[in-house]
Every structure is written in structure tokens, then in C-alpha cells.
Design goal:
Two copies of one chain form a homodimer. By secondary structure, chain A is an alpha+beta fold. The first copy, chain A, contains seven helices and five strands, in the order ααβααβαβαβαβ. The N and C termini of chain A lie far apart (52 Å).
Amino acid sequence: MHSLTGKLFTEVEADVLREIICNRRDVRGNRFLDRPLEEVVVRQLLDAALHAPSVGFSQPWEFVLIRDAEIKRQVKDSYTEENQKALSFFGEEKQAVYARLKLEGIVEAPLNIAVFYKPSGKPVLGQTSMEEVGLYSVVCAVQNMWLMARALNIGIGWVSILDPDKVKQILKAPLENKLVAYLCVGYTDGFYLKPELELLEWEKRKAAEAAVIYERYVISP
Amino acid sequence: MHSLTGKLFTEVEADVLREIICNRRDVRGNRFLDRPLEEVVVRQLLDAALHAPSVGFSQPWEFVLIRDAEIKRQVKDSYTEENQKALSFFGEEKQAVYARLKLEGIVEAPLNIAVFYKPSGKPVLGQTSMEEVGLYSVVCAVQNMWLMARALNIGIGWVSILDPDKVKQILKAPLENKLVAYLCVGYTDGFYLKPELELLEWEKRKAAEAAVIYERYVISP
């Protein structure tokens, strides 16, 4: 069998990762700078994505790099429509806050990346019982890219207020592809110290204890 | 509005992240050491997970920490059953290879973590058009944990050859919870330099060009 000679990381290196993780933010259009991304930087983001884990090493991802203003405008139209619908989900008080939020940077960001899941069309090792893990591989790629962007002091915002069918039409994506994420990418004038929705008191950070269960759930009688 | 004073990372720090990303592996039972994980280490893994991005800052995750041998045995039974079924998906030649692969470390790993999506029960900002992004937030938490584990020289293996309903029953999980990932976590005797399925030539690494599209898909006439 192949030798095991993987690198051992130091405590200092683990701390670097911890800092990158804790300083990553969702960046919106009011923060992006009008400055193009160098090709070498885009390559580093993609390289991080392409080294994500994938079920059965299936690498079921496709990345559409969008700089064209007309395509962005069409995607923005879908956002505007979906965001209008979204308002009605919230109570009166939250609606007023919601309407003031800047939630995307489709037009402002120099680069948009539409991230698709592409089914492999043959059985995939590890995907035979839980088919959705193919999608999850693509999400791991997005998270790798997001962290790498933060380490390069580049902002990413994930826009999910979109009609995925419309985005597929705009991008002429194959029928079998599934839109997983739509990312706005660019240099920014800075990063907030905490998530914006936490600063705005839209939601509170949950206590760690609320998310951790030991051994199994206890059913109340 | 709140000030923007987020940390600026250096090139050296970005390189550390790149190395962690490229050296992360899926670790199986033939590599785990029989050595318990210190509580402080488990806390660091959870802390990385809890700082993942989540749609609308909903933090829709729950982590079940499993050390109990009887629970592990029951989960392993589900793996064995599903893995037997999985064989039939592959052609004769691949079946022989598949049957020899060690694909999980449920019993060998000192710690298992079942990761669930817990729907919030109220409308979530950003989740009104693509409901699945709640699940994707949980996957981002898994990937954060996986990278932090690698930085701490700890192995994680993601087991997806399981019946999620059986795992939910074993863990007495609430009906509304959805199993996203089942992780085996522990110290290891090393990390392979490349993904195991690449070394075994089960799948090839795809060329970057195959995964990148510019502006939009071109439909052949």
C-alpha cells in the first residue's frame, strides 16, 4: 500500500485556520470594490474548490465564471423578483428591517460564480444510500473557496434568493445540472468583526450547548 | 453602521490554508489509533463547526457525539447492510475491488459525530426560494470541522453508506431532523499524500478545465 507521509501541522498553523474560519463573512454589494480580480487569484480560489472532498472522488462540480454585465443583470432580476416574494414570509416588524437590508452584490462584484452539481451518470461509490451527498460534495467545494477567499482578503457573498430554474435558463445550463450556490466575489473595503445579521440583531448566536448532544437524543416522556 | 476592522491575512497564512485544504483526507478504520480525543480538541472541532456560514444566521445544526460502543455497533450494522446492497450497483470487475475497500471506521474511531439539520420552524432569511440551503449550511459546518481536524493532525472519515432513517432511530432523533453527515473522528497513523481512491485508481482527478465554464454554457447545435 502507499506510504503515509502526510504533513504534520503545528499549533500555530491550526491557529491560522481558526482565525480564517472565525473571520470569514458573507460580503454584500455595499462592500465590494470596483477592482477586477487577478487571474492568478481566481485560479487559487478554484484550486481550493477542486481540492474539496467528494463522495467516491466523483468531483461532481462545475463552476461558471460570470463577468458579463448583461448576464449579471438577468440574474439580478431573478433576485429582485424572489426578494419581493420573500418579504411576505416575515411579520410586519421584520419586513421593515428586511426591506432595508442589502443582501447581494451581483452587479457590484466583479466576478460571479454559479456553482453546479453535475450528476456523474454512473453509480458513485458512497452515493448509493444517500444520493444527496453528491450535492454536499459541491457545498464542501464552496466552503473551501470561501475560506481561501478570506485568507486572500477577498470577499464572497452567497446569494440564495434566486429562482434556480431561471438562473439555469440564463446560463443555458444542462437540464441535469443542479444549481447549488451563486457567489459574488471581489475585493472589499473590509470585513465586519461579526456576522452582519448578528450585528443587526436579526438573529442571536446560539450557545454551543444548544447544538451538542451526547450519545443520543433523550425523548421526553 | 459597525466598523470594518477585520484582520488582513498574509500570503504565508493563505499558504497555510492551501496546504491544509490539499492535505485533508477521508480517513478510514484501518488508520485510526486507539487513543481517545482530549476534550479540548473536541471543543476546537465543534468551535470550527459553529463558526460556519449559515443561511440567515440560522445555525441549523446539531452534533451528536457518540462514544458508546453499543450505539456504534448498531450504526455499523446499518453500514454493513447498505454496503452489501451497494455492491450490486457496480459491474463485476469493480465489485471485486469494492469488496476489498475499507470504507468506514465507525467502531475503530474513538469518536463518531452524527451531524443533523434541524429546521428552524420559522421563516429564515435567504431560505425562502431555495429551501435546501439550510442543509448546505450544515455541510459548511462539516467541512470547517474536517479542515480543523486536519490542522490538528486528526483524521475524519465521512460515512454515507448508511440508512439515514435507521441512524435516526438508533439515536432517537426528532422526526424533523435530517441526517446530513456521519463522521468517524480520531488520531491516525498518518495521512495519504493523495486521496485513497485516486491512489487505488478507482477514479482519476479531473482536469481543472473540465470543471470551469466561462459566462454561460454553450449549447451544441
